[in-house]
Amino acid sequence: DLEFRMRPRDFHCPKTALLCLENTHNVCGGTVLPVDYVEEVGRFAKTHKIPLHMDGARIMNAATYLGLPVKDLLRPCDTVMMCISKGLACPMGSLVAGSKDFIYKVSRVRKCLGGGMRQAGIVAAAGLVSLKTIVPRLHEDHENTQRLARGVCLKGNPYVSMDLDTVQTNMAVYDFHDIRRLSPVTFCERLLKVTEREYEDLQQAVTVKMIPISQSKARAVLHNDVNAEDVDAAIVKIRYVIEELCRSAGA
């Protein structure tokens, strides 16, 4: 498949200059690339003399899922980017790693494009805290995501489902099968509201923030600020909303 995607050696075409992987894979719901697959891609890249870059925005989640040091996931890669925000809970920031020459080029390009920040140590300090305190507890986010995914039974539901095999890290993706009757947008908008009837029925006023990631999918992402009690409250809310919307869709 990679051979097929390589640009032909033809002066009419641009050269294939970079091979990029993402781990965990966002669009696939936070699934993890197997180490042997990354190593196979690395061998392919070296054979064709193409640098291999890892979009590792959530690479620490991947390492946590596999139970491996992060360096083992990155051994075939020439460069890597990792977010210290997102799952690592910092207010902002990302890290990039590579050869000394590569980092010099990155710094220069950033400067050419107007990138720069004074007193950036305060951002770095948050990153250090995150690496020491948040990374060791990422497994809790994964456990809470499993709790959320398995807490709402969708078996046999004609409108919405979830592939539990893809729930590996801190994302859960809902699939919608008849978007004319029930769409991800309708679902996500309803989760942000609390009706009077709902409050009477559930005796709780809970909102759940998800986002549509395509015309037929909605995604929930868990993080450091969501605990097991929050998940249990969200499960009650999601069950209620799905039942309500499915009744309306079937009317």
UniProtKB/TrEMBL annotation:
Pfam families: Beta_elim_lyase. InterPro entries: ArAA_b-elim_lyase/Thr_aldolase (IPR001597), Low_specificity_L-TA-like (IPR023603), PyrdxlP-dep_Trfase (IPR015424), PyrdxlP-dep_Trfase_major (IPR015421), PyrdxlP-dep_Trfase_small (IPR015422). GO terms for molecular function: L-allo-threonine aldolase activity. The keyword ATP-binding does not apply. Residues 3-174 form the Aromatic amino acid beta-eliminating lyase/threonine aldolase domain. Keywords: Lyase, Pyridoxal phosphate. GO terms for biological process: glycine biosynthetic process; L-threonine catabolic process. Signal peptide: none annotated. GO terms for cellular component: cytosol. Its cofactor is pyridoxal 5'-phosphate. The keyword Lyase applies. Belongs to the threonine aldolase family. This is Putative threonine aldolase.
